[in-house]
Fold these 3 entries.
Entry 1:
Amino acid sequence: MAEHSNWLYRWLDERVDLQGLEKFLRHKTVPYHRHSIWYYVGGMTLYLFVVQVITGILLLLYYKPTAESAYESVQYIMTEVPFGWLVRSIHSYAANLFIGCVFVHMFSVFIMKAYRKPREFTWISGALLLFLAMGFGFSGYLLPWNQLAYLATNVGTSFATMVPVVGPWILEFLRGGKEVTGATLTRFFGFHVAVLPGLTTALLAVHLLFVQRQGMSVPIVIEDEISSKKADRRELPFIPNFLFRDMLGWTLALGLIILLATLFPWEVGDKADILKPAPAHIRPEWYFVFMYQTLKYVPKVVGVFGFAIAGMVWVLLPFFDRKSNRGISNKLYTAIGIIVVAYMIIMTAVAYLAPGE
């Protein structure tokens, strides 16, 4: 092409069809309406995952996944490695923001009914990515090998025993034995840096493929307004309009994370010691707190099975909401979703404001 005189471009174009990619991106658009802001949450989630991968690789250069060295290696990163404290703090803050964005993205998709036909598999892959994100948080929590992480992992893995028949086997699989030991740390390290990233990368590729093939979903209420001529169908060019706005959000998010990491570096805590008593009002990370608080009020077996069933229903939701699949707004499901979000927020608030209750 005459307009592309750069030899490198021509060389790559002959091998990977850059012109085809350029044409696709030039014509790619995103629906533009009053709810379009929620489309940016998906891109933010992907961006934070990339931040996690990059900072995680840097931490791997110094981290030692053994009970004898893990805590000391984290201390070394925080005190001796140039900017190690910053990288670790960014990794920790970005992890929490990443999981928060996954929750917001999932519930925004739910409220807009973007899981309806023909996007069932897009929803299923996204729901599974939510569970993998929580798995990242649970496995990574133990890696500093501090006292709080040790006790929380001990409690968290113990719930596996409530599963009939295979419960004890699941417990030993997670812990690498009957108790939380150095074998558990090594196993969780393997989950965190190999198994979960591999599964997430593969599932993320499938999820993005579905999104690209099917495009962004338009809420039912907007489609009704368009069909009744109350509103016009508008599209926003992906490049540069949507992408630049996405990148602005990424820049602001990274700035906030760096600010928090600088002002409040992530603490290391005390080294794990099985002889020390558990501190008062111990609780898991914030995204598990609503489950933890619920289990205080109901029999644990009932609670564990209740959350398991709720998780399966969540994954298979598109096949239950037949009304939305027909293009009819389902206010009942919307109300249920709002109640679920309110319940999670209330249980989390209770756990933090009244931990002794």
Note: The chain has one domain: 24-280.
Entry 2:
Amino acid sequence: MDMFGTPPADLDLSLPIEPMKLDVIGEQRKELQAFISELLETHPTKLKKKEKDKLRDTYRQLLLNVIYNSIRRVYTGVPRGKHAYAPDSYWRSLGLTYSFTVAALDRLVTDGYLEQQHGFLDRKSGIGKLTRIYAKDKLADEINAYAIAEHVHLSHEAEALVFRDFKEGDPLLDRDHPDLQRLRVINDFLNGYNWLQKGPIRLIYNSDPLQGGRVYTRFQNLKRRLRAEMRISGRPVVELDYKANHLAMLIALAGEELPSDPYLDISVKTGQSRDKVKKFITVSISASSEEKAFAACRQYGINRDLFVTLRNATSELFPGVPLFVGIGKSMQSLEGQVALDIMAEGANAGIPVLPVHDSFITTVENELWLREQMSSKWRYHLDTTEEPKIEKK
């Protein structure tokens, strides 16, 4: 049965394990319970009752996450290092421990139900990457994965702050940290609304808590057509998008005049398509060196001559924009701070707002309000009088 398909090539298309439950009592739950019971009964060593209960809970969390995510072509991230499971860690808050998690992972991989991309920890630099897991079709032969995924419930009470690919366990933020305060306000308010693939708004930190995190909600993986058709508690929606947001933010931070469409300016100057320019800029903002950027650009059909042409045109048009210095994550973090402010303002005003990368969704009657908030919060965080370009999707 070809259900999950080939895992994505990009390992960053991943989400850390989250607390999940099945919201039905029926065949789906019976199938899952029977499958887990079989794994426990055939465990290579004899388990005491407490050990069996703990391993059962671990299997349930791993399987619910990997089924739900793999159907949506997203990896599930989980640590395999003992240091990650400290008493105050995010993973322990989910009820996971090192020994049972690794035992469950090894069994599911060995038996051919999951494939695994090992993570790592560089103790010298302190930088690490979570192990990524993805469901194999053998798992779908055992249980009705689609039926299970349709009835997965993501707990609103779950911690909304997630640390991914961190060193030596998770950093701790004070409960009065402004990110946590805004997340609580946002999630408490949005809990009273319903939408497709509802789940808590999360802030995912990558490798540096001082830079802030990127806002995420599960429905943003939906195709644009489905997002256009979705409803928030029965109300039709509108989606507004920042045009060329990361490049626009860098231009504003450099104190330069913001054009209507900076991608188009580079496109006209080089004679290349806007889409190819966008790919070049996205890669070059995130890459830590010019050679790494070129290596990544080659997959988009950008050869050395074209790469140099695009680089020179960008530098001539926008001399203050830094390329090849790995500033992409900082832009994602800044984008996250803007998003938190917009959504918190919505919660205070009684207006639901959902994030989709660098765009936002609200109900149609609040389109003008959202447009004004997107402009004002962007200008505040960029400390600029330049107006961001906002368009309706």
Note: Confidence is low (pLDDT under 50) at residues 163-172, 207-212.
Entry 3:
Amino acid sequence: MTERILIVDDEPDIRDVIRDILMDENYSVEQSANATEAREMMAAFNPDLVLLDIWMPDIDGITLLKEWVSQGIDKPIIMISGHGTVETAVEAIRNGAYDFLEKPLSTAKMLVTIERAFQNTRLVKENKELRDRIEPLSNLIGSSQAMTLLREQVQRIAPTESRVLISGEPGTGKRVVARCIHQSSSRKKGPMVEFNLAGVSETMLPVQLFGLEDGENIQIGRLEQAQGGTLYLDEITDLSLATQSVLENVLEQKQFMREGGSIFLDIDARIISSTSRDIEKEVSERRFREALFYFLDVVPLKVPSLRDRTEDIPELVTFYTNWMVKNENLNYSRFSTAALNLMRNYSWPGNIRELRNVVQRLLIMNSSDEIGLEETQNALGESQPLQQKIVTSQAVKDLELRQAREIFEREYFIHQLNKTNSNIAETARNVGMERTHLYRKLKALDIDPKQLNDT
């Protein structure tokens, strides 16, 4: 698709020269001589990029820039001026301009700047599409008490500008929580830029985070890409102490400078960070700066592990099954009650990430309409029959009463059913219950006697 560029300048000769250059580069071009025409052309032409002169007879370019930014127009806007100063350039960038060019315009520099702006726009769009494909979850799934509480916390936090520190084991969905906060915030129309700090070399991290200026070559960093939106710093505790110090100073001053640059840029991004480690322990053992911790930890959020909300597993399995059938062209198969029970009783060291992989593997390998116990055991590496893993007495004592009672009752009734080879009448006599009451209890505990018998 041909990219559209709007030129806003009160000098017709300059407009015509720029138009001819851009049309030779196969851009679609329109012109405006003042702010009034520019407003009309913004609506009618819907440009992908704007070249905006600062000095115009009716309304100056900076005022028009502020107006468009306040309206949520997120096109890259490149300011141009024949009376440019460092202060003018800084003001333009601070107010949302993508870049600043001085007159007389260098054709080469103008074209490079325009192409770089389009590349950045495409990169942000591609990153969003890739994230949506890799991580289909756009909300927090689960009806458990833990997830209900987490959703309530997210809804309270999202409308604020507060910094958030998300903690939780690997694979629990910390990134999903960050995205939910962004999508429910006033910044939802802005970019959501995710930066995983794990494994990034200390020498390259400043460039990737703050950007780089090398002559006419400018590389935009994650912090700049997140302007007007949210920057999500994943695995914040992987930063070295030296880099932590730099980040702490930048965030407190609310300004940063590209590597090799000379202009400070204001930060207009909400910071959400996350860690899989015990960050308070990292602070106490002086591996993480205390001042940075308190700066980031304005609002702490803890994402529960999957083993702490196993009642959500059937809902998660259903979601991932439907998503993969729709988006990955896999054949639909339902999970048997025995398979779901086994999954509920599995420890899930890899949390939701592991569950998703298991569901995908089973859908790929299964050739029937139903995924049963044996296939699920193989996928999980399990060899034991369907039964609740034995929990130590002390572990049970540390749980809430409702959870401890459910674990005991499941173990108790599965044991009784196994003794009678799932004979309901005999089991009812042994446990001193009416058969109808026993059926209701087994259904409430999600125990299927037929599946037990099959094992």
Note: Residues 193 and 231 are 5 Å apart (CA to CA).
